[in-house]
Amino acid sequence: MIDLLKTKIGRLRILAILEGISLLTLVFIALPLKYWLGNPSLVKMIGPIHGTLFLLFLFNTLSVGVEQHWKFKETTWKVILACFIPFGTFYIDKKILSRL
């Protein structure tokens, strides 16, 4: 895990995993608490965290794509699309980012 912090692609992979975990937490813990138990406090806390991680992943994908000279049609758009598909960041980490 420490090795991932040394490169931009490694940091992007960490962001992908964190963004996916934040969505899992939001969808499977915070939202049920809000709608079934009437307790929106976790949504108010996790929602902005997930939004921030989402934007960081998006901006870092563009930054890494430009720096690494990724071909937009082959790599960059797939990685960007992954953050718009629920849990797509886990898939894109395994299929693309881990191989770079």
UniProtKB/TrEMBL annotation:
Kinase recorded as keyword: no
GO CC list: plasma membrane
Span of domain DUF3817: 10-96
Keywords: Cell membrane, Membrane, Transmembrane, Transmembrane helix
Positions of transmembrane segments: 12-33, 45-63
Membrane topology label: Multi-pass membrane protein
Top-level taxon in the UniProt lineage: Bacteria
Compartments where found: Cell membrane
Listed InterPro entries: DUF3817_TM
Protein name per the record: DUF3817 domain-containing protein
